[in-house]
């Protein structure tokens, strides 16, 4: 094959595929630029709206790879490759992978929902997924809790998002409830006045909403009061502990008894 024949072949190839090659290069350049710029714009928008960094990073990476995948398909189409069949193959492969990893994908979806809607934040005490504890971390796959005795609990996000979430730290105030029993022989009004005085004396109890002290039950061995007091969320347990102790000590001084279940046994003897 002489030089003239080679030159003719090169000219023929360049004439037939030259525009396609140039178009593919242009598509690659534009696609690469877009894949870098779009995530930056998305990142700025999500930062302004206060979206969690974990979620924003995940969405930005997803957008970048999606744009690159579309760019690759456009390049193949430029050379006449039937992308419809390729898309069908990729779709089938994606479906198979999705079915195999459906548990993991549900956890990722749950993590995204938790990070976007923020039903709980780090430091909140919650009950979620059948467990209770203080939230230490929320990732795309798991939620980490620390129980009251400082045991780490890792819950898949699919379980957390798919169940009821009770956030005890969400509101700044919280109602503290006590049930106090006195003997049937004791003075109900006197006991109520003592509880009322102790609540008012503790500065951690709120004036509004007003506290409630009412007889709720005539039990087997006691007359039971329900005591409801509003306080700051952080004072819930300190106030509950202090009031319980103060009520017991003051009842002892004032001669009001707190009964406990008793059982009378009659011994039968044969004559």
**In CATH terms, what is the architecture of the largest domain?**
Orthogonal Bundle
Q: Please, what is the oligomeric state?
A: single chain
- CATH topology call of the largest domain: Helix Hairpins
User: Percent range for helical residues?
Assistant: 40-55%
Order of helices and strands: HHHHEEEEHEEHEEH
Give the overall form. Answer: elongated
| C-alpha Rg (nearest Å) | 35 Å
Provide structural commentary.
This protein folds into three domains: 3-100, Helix Hairpins (Orthogonal Bundle); 119-167, SH3 type barrels, CATH 2.30.30.60; 173-254, Alpha-Beta Plaits. 53% of the residues lie in helices and 19% in strands. It has helices at residues 3-48, 53-78, 83-100, 102-117, 157-161, 188-201, 236-254, and strands at 125-128, 131-138, 142-146, 152-156, 166-167, 173-182, 212-218, 223-232. The chain has a five-stranded antiparallel β-sheet. Strand 3 and strand 4 (152-156) form a beta hairpin. The longest helix is centred in the N-terminal third of the chain and has 46 residues, at 3-48. The chain is elongated and about 130 Å long.
Which terms summarize this structure?
alpha+beta; 19% strand; 271 residues; 8 strands; Alpha-Beta Plaits; five-stranded antiparallel sheet; 3 domains; Helix Hairpins; elongated; SH3 type barrels
């Amino acid at each position: 094959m002489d030089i003239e024949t080679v030159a003719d072949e090169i000219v023929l190839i360049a004439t037939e595929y030259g525009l396609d090659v140039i178009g593919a290069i242009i598509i690659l350049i534009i696609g690469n630029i877009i894949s870098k710029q779009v995530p930056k714009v998305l990142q700025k928008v999500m930062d302004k709206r206060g979206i969690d960094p974990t979620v924003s990073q995940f969405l930005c990476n997803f957008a970048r790879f999606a744009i690159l995948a579309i760019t690759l398909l456009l390049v193949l189409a430029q050379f006449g490759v039937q992308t419809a069949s390729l898309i069908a193959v990729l779709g089938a492969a994606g479906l198979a992978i999705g079915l195999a990893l459906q548990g993991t994908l549900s956890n990722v979806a749950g993590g995204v929902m938790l990070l976007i809607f923020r039903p709980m934040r780090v430091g909140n005490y919650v009950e979620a997924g059948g467990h209770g504890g203080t939230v230490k971390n929320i990732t795309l796959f798991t939620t980490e809790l620390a129980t009251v005795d400082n045991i780490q609990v890792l819950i898949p996000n699919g379980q957390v998002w798919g169940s009821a979430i009770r956030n005890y730290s969400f509101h700044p105030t919280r109602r503290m409830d006590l049930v106090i029993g006195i003997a049937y022989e004791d003075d109900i009004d006197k006991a109520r006045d003592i509880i009322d005085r102790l609540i008012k004396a503790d500065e951690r109890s709120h004036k509004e909403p007003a506290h409630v002290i009412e007889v709720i039950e005539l039990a087997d061995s006691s007359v039971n009061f329900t005591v409801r007091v509003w306080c700051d969320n952080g004072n819930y347990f300190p106030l509950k502990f202090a009031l319980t102790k103060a009520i017991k000590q003051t009842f002892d001084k004032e001669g009001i008894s707190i009964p406990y279940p008793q059982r009378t046994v009659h011994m039968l003897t044969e004559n």
